[in-house]
Amino acid sequence: MRSAVVLFPGSNRDHDMVKALHSVTGIKPTVVWHQDATLPDVDLIVLPGGFSYGDYLRCGAIAARSPAMLDVARKAKAGVRVLGVCNGFQILTEAGLLPGALMRNAHLRFVCKEVKLEVTNNDTDFTRAYAKGQVIRCPVAHHDGNYFADPETLARLEGDGRVAFRYAEGTNPNGSINDIAGILNEAGNVLGMMPHPENLIEALHGGFDGRGLFESVATSLAA
Amino acid sequence: MFQNDIDITPDLISRHGLKPDEYDRILRLIGRKPTLTELGIFSAMWNEHCSYKSSKKWLKTLPTKGEKVVIGPGENAGVIDIGDGDVAIFKMESHNHPSYIEPYQGATTGVGGILRDVFTMGARPIAAMNSLSFGEPDHPKTRHLVAGVVAGVGGYGNSFGVPTIGGEVRFHARYNGNCLVNAFALGIAKRDGIFLSEAKGVGLPVVYLGAKTGRDGVGGATMASAEFDDTIEEKRPTVQVGDPFTEKRLLEACLELMKTGAVVAIQDMGAAGLTCSAVEMGAKGNLGIRLDLDRVPQREEDMTPYEMMLSESQERMLMVLEPSKEKEAEAVFRKWELDFAVCGVTTDDLRFRIIWQGKEVANLPIKELGDEAPEYDRPWVEPKTAAPLADDAIPAVNDVGAALIRLMGAPDQASRAWVYEQYDCLVQGNSAQIPGGDAGVVRVEGTNKALAMSADVTPRYCDADPFEGGKQAVAESWRNVTAVGGDPIALTDNLNFGNPEKPEAMGQFVRALQGIAEACRALNFPIVSGNVSLYNETNGVGILPSPTIVGVGLLPDVTKMATIAFKADGDEVLLVGGHGSHLGQSVYLRDLHGREEGTPPPVDLTLEKKNGDFVRGLIASGRVTTCHDLSDGGLGVALAEMAMAGRRGVRVELGGLAPHVAVFAEDQARYLIALKPGDVSAILADAAKSGVSVERIGTVGGDAVDFGPAGKASVTDLKAAYDSWFPAFMGGKA
Question: Which residues bind Mg(2+) 1 (chain B) (predicted)?
Answer without folding.
Answer: 93, 531
